[in-house]
Design brief:
The chain is an alpha/beta fold. The chain has two domains: about 180 residues, FAD/NAD(P)-binding domain (3-Layer(bba) Sandwich), CATH 3.50.50.60; about 220 residues, Guanine Nucleotide Dissociation Inhibitor, domain 1 (Orthogonal Bundle). Helix content is about 30%, strand content about 20%. The chain is built from 15 helices and 20 strands. Strands 1, 2, 9, 10, 11, 12 and 20 form a seven-stranded mixed sheet that branches. The radius of gyration is 24 Å and the shape is globular. The N terminus is likely disordered. This is Amine oxidase, flavin-containing superfamily.
């Protein structure tokens, strides 16, 4: 009698109280606890509205599949961020700067009605000459650098391209030979000496920031981004948007996804159930309890695509298997941060590169500023900052990064009062991209880490894409998603 009464009361309360009151109770994954309007049924649920998540969403929609994207922030686009100057209305891209000039990229932009041009092709010939200088931002002193000639750089890249030919599948993903050759897990500083490609190293460092210490990172981690495609782009040229607002891509994608009820912003998965292919109901293979601004929703899907960085703390709500925990627990990452600063005291047409007089290849010590570049707006400079690799999801606090950027600019001013105005730098906008460049340690790479990582695809009807599975490059991530992940995911839908 008392048992029956307790059951009736608990069911009655379940209807009266907000579903979020049951967030820690597995019964909340039962559809009968939700109003029909709060149950979302789709072919595929996508976690993360960044570069890979949105590309996959649009691609799956075009393949006739129903999808729902869950994004924690109030916007989509991930590392693609654009600041619009309040006075002039000028856009400044502070995240992703360019894309590869390949057919998949051009077709994707055309699909979302975004015109693209070759980067730099519309430069104003009447604008002031752009200048650059090298300074040690630890002391503020200028650094004299003897750069290799254009021919020497070309020769070095040609030698590097010959090495890439040994591993053609690296252009498609982290498909390493078995066993893994020593060349791929040796420090990249040793690799460039071995194959006489040292004259290309600084160019690679500048094009591929956020990786960590380029001299100690395993060679394959440099190759995963700076692969065959990217080497070709150095001669053919990169793409950017005609309006110099790379976020336009995601503005259009957001409108389309919202109009088809395919996107949940400011939303977060708080509990998940992932079943294998033998689940009784296809729509019940994946169940996600999602906290949204409009209350808690239940998503039921046939398959799940996770595109967020696969860090254990981020993936806690997804009830990871022991195998998943073991694999993802081996990943390390670096910190990468971008910002726009005013009152730097630096001339509007001058870019500063952080270099050391006495270090190998004049590379800066991390953590530190990579560079302070010019923008299209007078009085504003863009500063890029990075850290070494770390086992921490967030290697440095935002407060520490900001303080170091300001301190670096002030040291530059104090050491060169005749060149730089003595002003008080201020942030106009600041953005953390940590965790950035998820990667494996050399010993784990040697022991087959990337085979283990890719073997997780499809387990419990869950698929994975994003920078952690391919590289910190949108163009490469889109190709990997389209050519490797989505063909397997759509099977059986």
């Amino acid at each position: 009698m008392h048992c029956c009464q307790a059951t009736i009361i608990s069911v009655f309360l379940a209807w009266l109280l907000p579903t979020s009151a049951f967030a820690d109770n597995s019964l909340t994954l039962d559809p009968t606890y939700f109003k029909p309007a709060d149950v979302i049924t789709r072919d595929v649920a996508i976690i993360g509205g960044g570069s890979s998540g949105i590309y996959s969403a649009i691609s799956l929609k075009d393949k006739g599949k129903s999808i729902i994207v869950v994004e924690k922030k109030g916007r989509i686009g991930g590392h693609t961020e654009t600041y619009i100057d309040s006075t002039t209305g000028t856009p400044i891209d502070i995240g992703v700067q360019t894309w590869q000039n390949i057919s998949l990229v051009r077709n994707y932009f055309a699909r979302l009605n975004i015109p693209v041009i070759k980067f730099g092709s519309d430069a104003d010939p009447n604008s002031p000459a752009q200048l650059s200088a090298n300074y040690d931002l630890r002391s503020g002193k200028e650094v004299n650098v003897t750069a290799p000639s254009a021919q020497q750089v070309y020769t070095a890249f040609a030698a590097y391209a010959e090495q890439l030919k040994k591993y053609p599948r690296l252009n498609d993903g982290m498909f390493l030979p078995n066993p893994v050759p020593e060349d791929l897990y040796m420090p990249f500083g040793d690799f460039v000496k071995k194959y006489k490609i040292e004259d290309a190293l600084v160019t690679m460092f500048n094009y591929n920031p956020g990786l960590g210490d380029v001299l100690t990172v395993p060679t394959v981690e440099q190759m995963r981004a700076f692969g065959q495609n990217l080497v070709e782009q150095l001669s053919t040229g990169f793409l950017t948007t005609r309006h110099h607002n790379n976020s336009e891509l995601y503005t259009n994608a957001e409108k389309e996804l919202l109009s088809s009820s395919s996107l949940l912003l400011n939303s977060e998965v708080i509990q998940a159930e992932r079943n294998d292919g033998n689940a009784k109901s296809e729509s019940g293979r994946i169940k996600l309890l999602v906290r949204t601004p409009n209350g808690t929703k239940l998503i039921r899907a046939k398959k799940l695509l996770i595109t967020i960085p696969p860090r254990l703390d981020f993936l806690a709500p997804f009830s990871l298997s022991q195998k998943e925990k073991t694999v993802f627990g081996k990943l390390i990452d670096a910190g990468y941060y971008t910002s726009i600063v005013k009152n730097t005291g630096i001339p509007d047409n001058l870019s500063i590169t952080n270099m050391l007089q006495s270090s190998p290849y004049n590379l800066p010590v991390l953590p530190g500023v990579y560079s302070i570049g010019t923008t299209q707006v007078k009085g504003l400079h863009i500063a890029f900052y990075g850290t070494p690799r770390s086992s921490k999801t967030f290697p440095l606090s935002d407060e520490d990064v900001k303080a170091d950027i300001i301190a670096s600019i002030k040291r530059l001013q104090r050491a060169n009062p005749d060149k730089f105005n003595q002003t008080e730098p201020e942030f106009v906008v600041y953005s953390s991209h940590a965790p950035f460049y998820l990667q494996a340690r050399p010993e784990d790479t040697k022991d087959g880490f990337y085979r283990e990582l890719y073997a997780l695809q499809g387990g419990r009807n869950t698929y994975w894409t994003g920078a952690g599975f391919r590289s910190q490059d949108s163009s490469n991530v889109w190709r990997f998603s389209e050519d490797v992940v989505l063909p397997e995911l759509v099977k059986g839908l």
